[in-house]
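note to self — DONT lose this again. spent like an hour looking for the file last time. sequence + predicted structure for the chain T wanted, 378 res
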Amino acid sequence: ALAGCAALAAAMGIGRFAFTPILPMMQAEGALDVAQGGWLASANYLGYLVGGLTAIRISWGARTAIRVGLCAVGASTLAMGVAHSLGAWIALRGIAGAASAWVLVFASAWCLDQFESRAGPRRAAMLGAVVFSGVGVGIALAGILCTLLLIEKVSADDAWIALGAVSLAAAATTWRILGGTAGRPPAAPSSATPRSADAIRLAVCYGAFGFGYIIPATFLSTMARDAFPDPAVYGWTWPLFGAAAAASTFCAAAWGGRLSARALWIAGHVAMAVGVVIPLALPGLAGIIASGALVGGTFMVVTMAGMQEARRVAGVGSRRLIAAMTSSFAAGQIAGPLLVSFLAARGHGFAPALALAGAGLAASAFTLAIHSPKPRTS
């Protein structure tokens, strides 16, 4: 579980989300504007889509896929501090996105399979919380490091190099553990395929999740800097996002005995929709902090609930459905920053994109609710 936590901390907290706290640094140095930042973010999410699609068909074992993914995340992140052209940055962020998707799909599926075969339901849920808390832990640590570097006026290049080194250290730490000696349990017959009606519904709603949360997840630090330029203040909004994400996985595990995975997913979308639009109703740093807490505190709950619902729908052999949902999620993520780039190029702010994101989350919550499985009666 701790190895899975470290793997997701590097793959997701750094490979996916390191750009959020570093973007204000790059903007301050004149390396990027908001529109170019949107393109760079979308390159990462396009890579994530490619990674999700290839994870469906890849024949590698978990050990190889996780190792390759973690090494690629570390190397591409470190290289961001060496390259100095937009084209190179786009390529490197695309590589990091694809590699992070491999790690998420293979590490989460491998860990959940091992927990299911070795532990009771309650202990398995808590172990799963440890694994998925890694995303928030990685976000928080990357955010704290970038904030400290920003206060010390360290360059964005050095920040990329430092985070790349941390990613490679995580790869070395987990090298002998994840995908190790324990065999993968045989897959149970699948109760649904990625083409069944409910599986398609899950993938579409997971795509709405990707579109809904990604705008604050990409531009939270930028919005905070616009509201309060002091890095000693706005820099802590991203670590807050990560801390809320890490803590939320344990809350979700504790609630798991009282709420189904689908109910948690629905509740997460509703709370996230509020978090996405709250800066519109509460301008300034207070609204951004509230947004970071609500979106950060729900996006990993929805991620965990989505993975668990995929296992309920598709059985133990759920890797294909998880990969399909990951791909849909990535498509939604690509659309979010592209929309921001489109609006920024025409002089609009974040408000229209945030409103659309909140509406998509609310609609997907309604869809999941009206198609929830009916309780059985004796």
